[in-house]
Q: What sequence folds into this?
């Protein structure tokens, strides 16, 4: 039986900070402050930690790398993502009204910015020449039916890397994508990526 398995990869490297163990560790908190007028995306019914994670990994409305800050509405449990921050010229960074309602979270700069989404190229990743077949770069759905996502994870209109294990692939064959060398720095590092697999899971994996 032919088995079709697709892996959907979108890679992001974040250089983190000392003791960065949660998504909130990537942000400086300004208690009882707000960035007025920049509600690029409002997400209801989540906590501040999940709001920070959405800002880091991106959403369809505020893609990965474009979220620079967020307000958290403590009264309604509401997350407000913004492409601007308190340092953007002309922005209204002010006291929350009432004081306890909003808190402002300012995203820290990373020594390794998240720039790899495969939209333009392979992001310095390379195809291994010693493996059996290559990864493919694609947008939208895949060519064969019932074998993949309808679009990429980050924006829905970008590109992603995938492999198919249906014919002519054979059991035991390998497709390997090699990352560039990432330099070490003080603190920890985190590699974030998204995967998608569609099809019957083979009993030999």
A:
């Amino acid at each position: 039986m032919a088995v079709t398995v697709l892996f959907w990869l979108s890679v992001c490297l974040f250089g983190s900070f000392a003791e960065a163990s949660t998504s909130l560790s990537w942000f400086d908190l300004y208690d009882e402050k707000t960035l007025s007028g920049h509600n690029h995306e409002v997400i209801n019914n989540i906590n501040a930690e999940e709001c920070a994670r959405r800002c880091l990994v991106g959403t369809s409305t505020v893609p990965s790398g474009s979220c620079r800050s967020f307000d958290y509405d403590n009264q309604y449990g509401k997350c407000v993502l913004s492409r601007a921050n308190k340092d953007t010229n002309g922005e209204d960074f002010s006291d929350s009204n009432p004081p306890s309602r909003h808190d402002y979270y300012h995203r820290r700069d990373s020594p390794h910015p998240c720039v790899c989404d495969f939209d333009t190229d392979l992001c310095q990743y390379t195809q291994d020449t010693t493996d059996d077949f290559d990864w493919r770069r694609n947008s939208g759905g895949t060519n064969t039916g019932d074998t993949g996502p309808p679009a990429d994870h980050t924006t829905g209109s970008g590109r992603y890397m995938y492999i198919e294990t249906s014919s002519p692939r054979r059991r035991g064959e390998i497709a390997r994508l090699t990352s560039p060398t990432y330099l070490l720095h003080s603190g920890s590092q985190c590699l974030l990526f998204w995967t998608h697999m569609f099809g019957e899971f083979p009993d030999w994996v």
Summary: The first strand starts at residue 10 and ends at 15.
